[in-house]
Amino acid sequence: MRTRLAVIVSALALLGSSAALAQNPSGGPAGPGGFAARRMARLMQGITLTPEQQAKVDSITARYSAQMPAFTPGVMPDSATRAKMRDLNERQDAEIRTLLTPDQQKVWDDNVAQMRARMQQRAPGNR
After folding, report:
1. Beta-carbon contacts of residue 2 (< 8 Å; ≥ 6 apart)
2. What is the C-alpha separation between 66 and 79, in angstroms, rounded?
3. Which of 41, 82, 103, 104 has a Cα at 20 to 30 A from 72?
4. pLDDT per residue over 61-113, tens digit each?
C-alpha cells in the first residue's frame, strides 16, 4: 500500500511539475494531463523516485518539453514533426533512465516494452 501511495504521489508530482506548466500553461501536450504527462506517468508506473531523482526528472522533462514542436491538437502532425518528437522523446527517456537504480531501470524497461506493444497494436494494419 505504501509503495502504491508513493507511486501515485510521484505521478502527481510529475503531472503537476511547475516547470512543465511554465512551458505550456494552456494544458496542451506539455501541460497537466497532456500527452507528455500521460506518457511519463506510464513510464514511471511502479517506480518510486527519491526527491533528488524527482527534481532531476522534472528538470529533464521541462527542458525537453520546451523543445517539442507545437502542433494543433486533433490534427495529425506531419512526418517531420513526428520524427522530431520521437527523437526528443528517445533522448529524454535515455537521460531519465540513467538517473534510475538498476531495479528501477528493470521496471522502466518493462514499461517501455508495454508501451511499445500497445503502440504496435494501435498501428494501422493491426486492427
Report:
1. none
2. 20
3. 41
4. 999 989 988 877 788 888 999 899 999 999 999 999 999 999 999 999 999 99
Spatial contact of 31 and 24, defined as CB atoms under 8 Å apart? yes
Q: How far is Cα 30 from Cα 117, in angstroms, rounded to an integer?
A: 23
pTM over 0.70: no
Grid cell of 88 as nine digits: 526528443
Orientation angle between helical segments 79-99 and 35-43, nearest 10 degrees: 40
Helix locations, 16-101, DSSP H: 18-23, 35-43, 51-67, 79-99
- Of 70, 52, 54, the C-alpha closest to 19 is 54
Residue with cell 517506480: 47
